[in-house]
Amino acid sequence: MQSPDKEKFRDSIGTINEEGKRAWVFPKKPSGKFYEYRKIVSYFLLLFLVAAPFVKINGNQFLMFNILERRFNIFGFPFWPQDFHLFVISMIIGVIFITLFTVAFGRIFCGWICPQTIFLEMVFRRIEFWIDGDRGKQIKLAKQEWNAEKIRKRLLKWSIFLIISFLIANVFLAYLIGSDKVIQYVIEGPAEHLSTLLPLGIFTAVFYFVFAWFREQVCIIACPYGRLQGVLLDNKSIVVAYDHKRGEGQNGRKKWRNDEDRKALGFGDCIDCVQCVHVCPTGIDIRNGTQLECVNCTACIDECDTIMEKVGLEKGLIRYASEDEIEKKEPFKLTARMKGYIAVLIILIGVLTGMLFLRNDVEARVLRLPGQLFEHKENNIISNVFTYKLVNKTSQEIDDVSFKLRKYKGNIKLVSTQKDVIVPAQGLAEGTMFIEINKKDLTGDKNKLMIEVYSGDKLIETTTVNFLGPRSYN
Ligand code: SF4
Ligand code: SF4
After folding, report:
1. Within the chain, what is the greatest distance between any pair of CA atoms?
2. d(Cα 84, Cα 67) in Å, to the nearest integer?
3. Given pLDDT bands bounded at 50, 70 and 90, which one contains residue 3?
4. What atom in ligand 1 is closest to the CA of residue 277?
C-alpha cells in the first residue's frame, strides 16, 4: 500500500498548476512499436471517419445522424423516428460493448480509437512537431520573445490548424445533414446557404478551440467516459501500468550508473530517467499508478522500452498489465462481471437482429382527423375521415399505392389531386382519406378496421384504425 504522501498526486490534475492556471503540456515526440501500430490504426480510422458519410450502400449514406429531420443511417441501414426503439437498442449495445471492453482492457478505446485522441495525437500534434520541433524546442519557442521566427511559426501552425478544423467541420456537417446536401451547398456556393454557414463556422471554431488549445483537458475534465473509469476498472482490468515491483525493487528507483550492480544493491529497474513523464500527452507520471488522466496512449510503454533496451534491461517495465498480474502474477481471465456483460450483449444483439429481420420496409400510419367523429350520408353510408402517412425506408420509389379494407365491405376514397400515390425513396407520402361503410355492415359504435396497403398487386403493409358509427343500428 502507498503512503498518503505518495497518493498526494491524486489531489490535483497534472495539467493545472498550483495557482490553478493551465500548465501547458509539451510532450516529447513518441516513437516505438506501439506508436507505429497506432499510426496504422489511425490512418484506417481517419479514412473511415472521413469516408463514412460519403459512401453509400443501396443509395443510403453509410453513416448519418440527421437529428433535425430525425433520420439516422447506421452501416447503410436507414432508421426513421418509427424505428427509434431499434436505434436505442443499437446505442445500448454500443455502450455495453464499450463498458465490457473497458472492464477488460481499460481505456484502450481512448488511446486507439477515440476521434479526439486520433485527431489530436496523429494530426494536430504531428503538425506541431513538424513546425515547432520536439519538446525541448517547443518549450524554448513558448518562452522566447515574439520575434520573426515565432510569429512565422505560430501563424503557419494556427492557419493549418484552422484549415483542418474547417475540413473536419464539413465532414461533421455531412454526418448531420447528409453528404449530398454538403456537396450541393459547396457547388452552389456559401452565399446561397448562409443559414448553414453559421453552424459550419461554429463547428470550425469549436474544433479549433479543442485541438489548438483545450486538447488533453477534454479527456481529463470534459469526457464523461473518462469519468467512468473509477467505476469500471478493477484489479483485473488490463491497463497501461508501471510494474512497480520490478521498477522499485527493495530500495526504490535510482539513476543509472554503469559501474554498479543495481540488483545486488537492491535497486529496481527504473532508472528514473523521467522519459515516460516527458512523453505523456496528459502530463502524468505513470509510476504513481493508474490515474484518471491516463488515456492509455502507450507512448510511455514505447519510451520506457527504448530506455530499457539502451541500458540492457528487459523491456516491459511499463506494459499492458492488470494490477493482479503485477502484484500476484495472475494471468488475465474473464471475471463474473465480464461474463455478465457478455451474456447481456449476446441477448441484445439477438433481439436487435430479430427486430431488424422483422422490420418492414414501409411503415403506414392512419390516424383519425382531430375533432372529427363520423358523417351520416345517403343510402345509410357512414363516413369517417383519416389522415395517412406512408414512410418508405428503402432507396427505391414505391408507386401505384392503393388502400383496401380487410374483412369489411366499404370504400376508401383518397383526397388527392394526383392520380397515383407515390412514396419517394427514403421519403414519405401523406394525405387524407375517407372510409365509407354501409351502416348495416358495422358491428358497434367502434369498429376495428384493418387497412391493407398495396403497391400494384403486392401487399406492402397493414395497419388498423378505429371506425366510428352511431350507437344503435336497429
Ligand atoms: S521511462 Fe522507464 S526507466 Fe525511465 S523513469 Fe520511466 S519507468 Fe523509469
Ligand atoms: S501515462 Fe502513458 S499511456 Fe497514460 S497517457 Fe501518459 S503516456 Fe499515455
Report:
1. 114
2. 12
3. very low
4. 6
Measuring CA to CA, which residue among 361, 434, 359, 452 is closest to residue 398?
361
Q: What are the residues facing 140 on neighbouring strands? A: none
Per-residue burial over 150-165, b = 16 or more CB atoms within 10 Å of its CB, e = otherwise: eeebeeebeebbeebb
Which element (helix H / strand E) includes 104?
helix 84-105
Ligand 1, atom 8, residue with closest C-alpha: 270
Question: Does position 235 have pLDDT exceeding 70, yes or no?
Answer: yes
Helical (H) or strand (E) element with 50? helix 33-51
Res. 472 pLDDT band, cuts 50 70 90 = low
CB 171 within 8 A of CB 62: no
Please name the amino acid found at residue 98.
I
Residue 300 Cα to ligand 2 midpoint, Å, equals 6
Instruction: Look at residues 3, 300, 15, 46 and name the one whose alpha carbon lies nearest to residue 167.
Output: 46
* Surface-to-core class of residue 328, CB atoms within 10 Å of its CB (0-12 exposed, 13-18 middle, 19+ buried): exposed
Enumerate long-range contacts of 350-357, CB under 8 Å, 24 or more apart: 351/89, 352/86, 352/89, 352/90, 352/93, 355/85, 355/86, 355/89, 356/77, 356/86
275 neighbors 28 (Cβ within 8 angstroms): yes
From the CB of 280, is ligand 2 less than 6 Å away? yes
CA of 295 to the centre of ligand 2 (A): 6
> Which residues lie across from 437 on neighbouring strands?
382
How far are the Cα atoms of 221, 271, 276, 279, 320 from residue 307, in angstroms, in the given order? 31, 9, 10, 12, 17
389 CA → ligand 2 middle, Å:
54
